Amino acid sequence: MNYRHIYHAGNFADVLKHAVLARLVTYLQQKEKAFRVLDIHAGIGLYDLSSEEAQKTGEWRDGIGRLLDGELPPEIAAILGPYLSSVRALNSGSELTLYPGSPKLARMLFRPQDRLSAMELHPDDYETLHRLFDGDFQSRITELDGWLALGAHLPPKEKRGLVLVDPPFEKEGEYERLADGLARAYRRFTGGVYCLWYPLKQGAPIKAFHEALKALDIPKMLCAELSVRSDRETTGLSGSGLIIVNPPFTLKSELDLLLPFLKARLAQDRFASSRCFWLRGEERATGGA
Prior knowledge:
Layout: H1 12-28, E1 36-39, E2 46-48, H2 52-57, H3 64-68, H4 74-89, E3 98-100, H5 102-109, E4 115-120, H6 123-132, E5 139-143, H7 146-152, E6 161-165, H8 174-188, E7 193-201, H9 206-214, E8 221-227, E9 237-245, H10 251-266, E10 273-280
Parallel strand pairs: 1-4, 1-6, 4-5, 6-7
Antiparallel strand pairs: 2-3, 7-9, 8-9, 8-10
């Protein structure tokens, strides 16, 4: 309940998460039928990068700031197109002031038939999020512990959907909670696409977390990780990862292109790294760059 994403909005972790989120939304739109995005840790939805909090850390400058600074190779521009177009649409000219959180980004990409369910537990953040979407009939904003939504709100009535699980990792045991939450949700909605975010930092139990996920016996799970610096010199965030359940068939090849580019563009020291591999599914060989 103490976490405030405004200090971190637009950082390197947001870049990876939101680039993939945008790809998943556009993939679901290949079929005419409606779908629902369920964002269970939604935050406030829109972030002012000129605010005192964002300026205090300036993390966005080494994230979205670097991505918008300079030309992109054509194949990377195509992959990042939905994400970067949404960011630019919120800002006039070349000045970067506003940055969309996950619910706002997804909503900006929607067709008229698509729907959003966003959950936020923090009372002040819920009120801000609710005001942002007030009057939007395609969005439902709920003041709720998002972990409860993995049971009560699945499956969505559309029977198609994307579930984003992006906890603040304030408490001990969040990696275990993430695996348990996925197990519970998948039993209710096996056909859904799931995107789970997790931090990479010194001492993080990543190997045990991956083993716990593999033990769930979910047929297709893709893992993408990006580290921008060594974790030896800091106890803070050095990178982040995503687990994508039931990923689009094109996503692995897209990430094989995107991750090395992000590693090079967002690196903060020579130990930056990236990898994309199947935890379960298409192949077992791991890749790295």
